[in-house]
């Protein structure tokens, strides 16, 4: 019996909820559950802010005395003397389409009761002095995996840092954050806040910082309701700037970005296949993805789409292709409201027992861009394994990841690669066979295992430095 279920769930932006009519949750009649998450916000008291500023001023004065800071060039205070690169960098190999959304810009409205962002919208909250860039989806999983680094947006000198503070905060309070502060050649200063405990750069105050250099890991230290980077820009005199140029930016006329992102950038962050409904748990619990890339005929598969800046100016069209590119399912979805900072939906389909084995594709066309996610339908075999760790390897039906061992290959040496497939890495099966070259069968040509062409599926927890799989006469030995 086939049972198709779909759902669409939304994240609410807390600030928008207060500023606008509450965002309705989209839920079709056949959906289940009503999990709602909140995108992060932060607050900082004036006292805390003044303390930080005094410390930075003292640091700058000291570094000048020591000759480690050069006087800034004579530019107008609010004119960009440097251009900023994007301050987040996903870990290499994390092949999600995007890992972030923006939950709040600088509040350009000086009034205490009203808000306005640089684009005359309300994507901010009262008195907010920076840009909040949040992780999405599975933000805590990304934090735990050190998956998204905060990197220097421009060259400069480290003029302050703090570390050692609790980093799993879910509320606005008086917690102290882990942060780094970089002064640029024009005297402007960038604040990078809420980073992971122990992750802040080992460089000393006074050391040079180069663009793209890692400053820490995105987390939720300080007064913060979830994992995000608070990126804040000051001019040489300490006044707040908004790096985004727009019709309602009263602080500075020019963009400070080398490449300013669109106010709304409708994007699929991630497509996912899973063997059960993904669970987005309440802060600070990591989500349970239930992600899988390999299924058997007869399995029910959940197809999830995660967006940031989803808009209602066109549908999101999803299609599931069989290996021969014939269409297994296709469906279209829209949202009733103009915009959501972060949203997601899933559809659940059972793949019939007679469906063809091989590499399938989950594709979404959205806002003129095509997003693809590969998954595999395989038959049962002696080498179909799924395990939580090397020490507990056991046959299971739904492996997370796949390693394709060609015919005649009895040994696979991962050569120091971490055996843990990260979310999304299953799109690139070849990445798992780095040492296969001579005589290797193309995993894409045929991925169904049999006696002459076994498949090995496994997951290893922990940071394996070397892993060897040895196959012989019906037994599999793993050592590392
Ligand atoms: Zn913020």
Q: Summed up, what is this model?
A:
This protein is mostly beta strands. The chain has helices at residues 14-19, 46-65, 139-144; strands spanning 5-12, 37-38, 88-90, 100-104, 131-135, 148-151, 156-162, 179-183, 189-193, 208-209, 214-217, 228-234, 240-241, 267-274, 294-295, 300-311, 316-321, 327-333, 339-350, 358-366, 369-377, 403-404, 411-413, 455-456, 468-472, 475-479. It contains 3 helices and 26 strands.
Molecular structure report:
Strands 4, 5, 7, 8, 9, 10, 12 and 13 form an eight-stranded antiparallel β-sheet that branches. A five-stranded mixed β-sheet has the order 2-1-19-16-14. It has a five-stranded mixed β-sheet with strand order 15-21-20-17-18, with no helix packed on it. The chain is mainly β. A hairpin with a 5-residue loop joins strand 12 (228-234) and strand 13 (240-241). It folds into three domains: 17-36 and 266-377, Macroglobulin (MG2) domain (Immunoglobulin-like, Sandwich); 46-241, Glucose Permease (Domain IIA), CATH 2.70.70; 400-479, no CATH class. It is 7% helix and 29% strand. The longest helix has 20 residues, at 46-65. The chain has helices spanning 14-19, 46-65, 139-144, and strands at residues 5-12, 37-38, 88-90, 100-104, 131-135, 148-151, 156-162, 179-183, 189-193, 208-209, 214-217, 228-234, 240-241, 267-274, 294-295, 300-311, 316-321, 327-333, 339-350, 358-366, 369-377, 403-404, 411-413, 455-456, 468-472, 475-479. It is elongated and about 75 Å long. Bound molecules: zinc ion. Zinc ion (ZN) binds at residues 42, 104, 128, 130, 132, 230.
